[in-house]
Amino acid sequence: MSKKEKVILFGKGMVYERKKERLFRDYDVTVILDNGVTLEADGGTEWENGIQVVNPAEIIRYPEGKILLLSYAVGEMYNQLRSLGVDGERIGFGVMEEPYNTFERMLFSDGGELVFEEGEIFYRNDVWGLYLKTDASDLEKLTESVKGTPLYPDSRRILEGFALEPLDDTYGMGRGTPVDRYYIEAFLDCHKDLIRGRVMEIGDRFYTEKFGGNRVRESVILHVDREAPEIGQIKGDLSTGEGLEAERVNCLICTQTLPFIYDFASAAERMVGLLESGGAALITAGGISQIIQYEKIHYGHFWSFTEQSLRRLFESMEDVESVEVRVYGNVKTASAFLYGISSEELEEKELDYRDSCYQVIIGVLVKKR
Predict the structure, then answer these.
(1) pTM for the complete prediction?
(2) Is residue 156 part of a domain?
(3) Residue 158 within a domain
(4) How many domains does the chain have?
(5) How far apart are CA 233 and CA 150, in angstroms?
(6) How large is the average pLDDT for residues 343-364?
(7) In which domain, by residue range, is 141 found?
(8) Which CATH number goes with the domain that contains 238?
(9) 43-71 mean pLDDT
(10) What's the mean pLDDT in 314-328?
């Protein structure tokens, strides 16, 4: 097993957060420099992943090792280190390290690099014959300089294919299985062993039967408007608790319901309240979605959610033992869903690619103490 190269990281902002997992995996990080750490008489320090975090002025205590700049203010950071007596040969650019965001991929995935020359930093790409001086405080200003070059992605081809109206204005149900349903079922399938005992599902028992099988002892349907005792359907309101006072279940399946409840916080509390001790709620909500007129008129479409909002919502509850959140979607499937393109019209690899910046569906597993 080869020995990892020792490096010093400079910067703890967005670039650091995006790249730190790989940097800590591929390098032996000895110390982190951060201008946010105050230089005190006692050399006050912080810690990150067991690594000391110090003010850059402390670099005199670390005379050896490559220093990676983790910021778009590369010129300012370079000059700061040089003013502290650091040899320019020790300084490298963390922005050139993968994983890339779209801006970094444009610059560095096809032969581009940053180079020093007489105290200035330039972007060089020999493949495309570019040699551009960077802005000391903001590398991203290079965007203006590379527009019109082969590096800059051309949006026209993509935009020409965008229609002003969807192919289907009912989530894609007129064409097949909606994209969000593909993700909902993927989430429920991951946790199907929890669908057991007395199970309540909102609206119908489709998922109870599909994923619960013979583990289900009793199936209850919760409907906000009507009851039908002959099929095990009860009338109850999650937002007020009316009709639910005596109900307790081992598992609650609640898909795509929270966006249509104005007082969603109260509804979430009652979802947890419906559970027996040790019970589980399987909840999904949309992050990116069409708004369908029928639902808007009859129920109201009030909210979209994120991984963070749902996690915080349920973790704040005293009776909750644990919360597990999964996100599904990417820019392509989000666009397809908005256009009403069905999941059958996409490839499995397209559907299963996850990009947490495009949260079509958020699935939440809530376990009660």
Answers:
(1) 0.88
(2) no
(3) no
(4) 2
(5) 61
(6) 98
(7) 6-146
(8) 3.40.50.150
(9) 89
(10) 98
Residues 113 and 251 occupy one common structural domain: no
Identify any residues that bridge with 154 across adjacent strands, giving them in sequence order.
Answer: none
> What are the φ and ψ backbone dihedral angles of 337, each rounded to 5 degrees?
-65, -40
Tokens (6 digits) for 192:
């199907």
Residues 6+ apart with CB under 8 A from 282: 187, 188, 191, 194, 195, 251, 252, 253, 254, 255, 363, 364, 365
Peptide bond connecting 99 to the previous residue in cis, omega within 30 degrees of 0: yes
229: its two tokens: 């005792």
Judge if 86 and 204 occupy the same domain: no
The tens digit of pLDDT for each residue in 281-299 reads 999 999 999 999 889 998 9
pLDDT of residue 207: 98
Residue after which a domain boundary falls, among 100, 126, 146: 146
Query: Which residue from 94, 120, 90 is spatially nearest to 108, judged by alpha carbons?
Result: 94
**Which residues in the chain belong to E strands, given as ranges?**
6-10, 28-33, 46-48, 51-54, 66-69, 91-93, 112-117, 120-125, 130-133, 197-202, 216-223, 233-235, 249-255, 275-286, 320-328, 361-368
Choose the final residue of a domain: 124, 146, 168.
146
109/28 same-domain check: yes
pLDDT tens digit sequence for 265-283 = 999 999 999 999 999 999 9
**CATH number of the domain that residue 81 is part of:** 3.40.50.720
- Going from the C-alpha of 123 to that of each of 101, 105, 116, 139, 339, the distances in angstroms are 17, 14, 9, 9, 39
227 domain-assigned? yes
Question: What would the mean pLDDT of 176-202 be, rounded to a whole number?
Answer: 98
Per-residue pLDDT, 42: 46
Q: pLDDT-based confidence at 44, cuts 50/70/90?
A: low
Higher pLDDT, 161 or 356: 356
- Tokens 């007489």 correspond to 118
